[in-house]
Every structure is written in C-alpha cells, then in structure tokens.
C-alpha cells in the first residue's frame, strides 16, 4: 500500500488546453491535447483510515520534499502518457460501450433481449446510435442476484456470440462474465475483450485464460458478490482502497507476463458501494489516470441516481446517467458503458462541441 496518491485537476479544454500545453503552462491528460491540467491534488494516507489532501500547481511540485516528490513525479509521467490503442480503439476522444443483457432478470432490461432476433436488432440499433463496443452478458449481476451455472450462462448467449462477427464485422465485442469456461467459449467465437466484474477473483482459472490468449481485459472492482455486495460495504477510503486494488492487480498481471497495454480500468460504480462511495469515486475519478490506463465509467441506470433524485426517478434514469457521463468526460474518462446509446451519444457530441468552441 502506497502513502501518496496523485490526482490531476483544474482542467482546460480545446484551444485553451492546446495553447497552455504549447506554452508549457499545463500538461496534456493521457496524451490528449484537447484536455490539459495545471494542478495536482496529492492524497496522503494517515493512520486509522484518515486521508489528507493538498492541491499544488505543477510548478510547485519541484519544491516538495523528496519523499513526496519521487512518487508524484512517477505518477505524473503516467498521467500524461498517451494510452495504448486496444482492439484498434484510440482513446483520444470518448467512446461508448453499449450494454446488452441477455438475461431474464437484469435490473433494468431483464427479458427484453432474451430472443435472438431482439438481441441482434438491439445490437444493430446501438451500433447505429454510436456505440463502438457491445458488451454482452448472460448472467444478471444486479444487487441480490444469484449465481447461475456456466452451462446456463453460455446457453443464453452462445448463438448471439457465435454469430456476432458475421453480423457485425466492424464492431468490437466485449463479453461480460466471471466464469473461465464462458470466457474460453467466447474467445473461440471472436470475443475481443473480457469484462469480469469480479476483477478475475470469482474463478481462479480466469486469469490463466486471459493471459494465455493475451486478450484485453476490463479490470473491474467489486466488493463482495452480487448477492452480498450492498450489505453494508465499508472502506478505509473508497478512492484509495480501489486504487490499491488496481495497482496490486496490475503488478501481479505484469509479473505473470500479461501485457499491461491490454488493461482498461473500471472502478465499479454500484458494486459494493453506497451512495457516498459512488459519489466520491465519480467526483475524483481522475485519480485513476495516475495508473496510466484508459478508464471506463459505468453509471448507466445505477441506483445511486435514484438515491439522489428520489421522487424524480425515472425507469431509464437517462438524465442522471448523462449528468454523470458528462462529468466523467470533464475528468478525461475515455469510455462509457451505457444502455441508452443514442441519448448519451447526443449529449456527448453537443457537450464536446460547446466545450471545444472558442
């Protein structure tokens, strides 16, 4: 566990960002010249779960004592480095991952796409609406859900997965599963990315599958299991604890010869987190840039939105989803996992246009 953590902050966008970078008054974020920052928030772990934070301009970093400066400079190098392309994806502008749950009991769309034709129609619609990746899952992982067998999970999605590349040859296919055999079956049928909500913790064979195939991985954080994760989740500091989880996993993967350029980070909004945890993660999500990987944010239709808006809740929670997506965009998040692709894409396009207008 490290003592100091680094969050880029005080962002600039568009021509203003490019000008500041050119004049060496700010750094580009993740190699993207359209997002710049000129301050760092430094978190320091103290005893008994306490955390201190201070904000410094980038010019003040050189004046810090050596104990702080060494890890901060290492973090800064990762923050500004350009992200590796994954499956041909360039992370210089936001990308959308469309969600397809082929389940009878997912929390918002269970049963809607259980039939093959309806599933394929939805995939086509999401791609037309601006999704670059389609994330297909055959097991509900909503709070309180029960684990199903590998055979049951694969039987729900096997035809759709097997036909995906024939029907949608240009699309990137992500498989949402915790089970090694489902991963193996998916990879044999053209799956491009594995998205395991357990962070490869559920099935001990999963890492060997991912490593042997050197297939890209969305490294997701979850506390507990879907059945238990919302039963009083606790952290010393949710932001830094999840950072430590990511860093430990990444170091392990690299030691075991898994290529780090294949990793995408997802802090797991709603997976073993209460409202306070979720809000802190979203508001400080730029902290994860100091690990040096693309960041995925999955806030679509999540229950934290209902907890905020109460009587103004809606079935699709599009307004709350879009608000969190746009905040993530301001923090340099590169990938958003959503259900309502067209509406979110519309919001991103308009917001980005305004943001980058002189």
Keyword list:
four-stranded antiparallel sheet; eight-stranded parallel sheet
Overview of this protein structure:
This protein has 358 residues and is of the alpha/beta class. It folds into 2 domains: 4-80, no CATH class; 95-355, TIM Barrel (Alpha-Beta Barrel), CATH 3.20.20.20. It contains 11 helices and 12 strands. The protein has helices spanning 14-22, 66-80, 116-128, 150-167, 180-188, 206-213, 238-255, 275-283, 303-309, 318-330, 341-355, and strands spanning 4-13, 27-29, 32-45, 51-57, 95-101, 133-137, 172-176, 193-196, 217-220, 263-266, 296-297, 335-338. The strands form 2 sheets. It has an 8-stranded parallel beta sheet. Strands 1, 2, 3 and 4 form a 4-stranded antiparallel beta sheet that branches. Helix 4 packs parallel to helix 5 (180-188) and helix 10 runs parallel beside helix 11. The longest helix has 18 residues, at 150-167.
Query: Quick one: biggest sheet?
Result: 8 strands, parallel
CATH H-level homologous superfamily name of the largest domain: Dihydropteroate synthase-like
Helix content: 25-40%
Stated plainly, the CATH topology of the largest domain is called TIM Barrel
Classify the oligomer.
single chain
**Shape, please?**
globular
Strand content: 15-25%
Gap between N and C termini: 43 Å
Count of spatially separate domains: 2
- Secondary-structure class: alpha/beta
Rg measurement, Å: 20 Å
The residue ranges in which pLDDT falls below 50 over 5 or more consecutive positions are none
**Average pLDDT over all residues:** 94
The strand order across the widest sheet is 10-9-8-7-6-5-12-11
CATH A-level architecture of the largest domain: Alpha-Beta Barrel
CATH class of the largest domain: Alpha Beta
Question: Could you give the order of the helices and strands?
Answer: EHEEEHEHEHEHEHEHEHEHHEH
